[in-house]
Amino acid sequence: MLSSYNKYLTWRELVEIQPPARPPVSERQPTPSAQFRETKGELALNGTRCTACQTPQYPPQRVCMICKTKDQFVPYDFSQAKGKVFTFSHDYVMETLDPPVTLTVVDFDGGGRIMCDMTDREPEKIRVGMDIEMTFRKLYYVGGIYNYWWKCKPVY
Q1: Which of 34, 44, 134, 140 is the most exposed place for a label (fewest CB within 10 A)?
Q2: CA angle 55, 56, 60 (to 5 degrees)
């Protein structure tokens, strides 16, 4: 349920909104080769798990943050991982159809940390320590290329 008809019109791009005072999206065009290189690691949200102490770590590391073991890791999937908000901020200047952009640092349950945008949220309800889950979303479309990345969303 949307809070207003204006939000519906904006999301459907039926009304024009004033762009923010930032470089246009066209200057941030993704390249297909870079996206292909990142498919296994970043786009799949793969981290590692230490084989000595079993601690999951994101981003992938060479030295375990807990037991200091070096190069003893196996792949670990964070795409289904749950976590909690470590910190956040609301950015009212970034280009978005649903201001503000909520920039969030998430601590995954068991280990690992990521910085990402929060989606499907009500800005006034965001709190440090609230439960989140990860979701794969389209960031923008430019130059014939869709750019996707992970966002977190609250678990109410």
Answers
A1: 34
A2: 125
Tell me which residue of 41, 60, 39 sits closest to 50, measured CA to CA: 60
pTM: 0.76
| Residue-wise pLDDT tens digits, 31-72 | 777 777 777 767 889 999 999 999 999 988 899 999 999 999
User: What is the distance between the alpha carbons of residues 134 and 44, in angstroms, rounded to a whole number?
Assistant: 11
Q: Closest by alpha carbon to 129, among 100, 86, 95, 96?
A: 86
For 81, counting Cβ atoms within 10 Å of its Cβ (0-12 exposed, 13-18 middle, 19+ buried), the class is buried
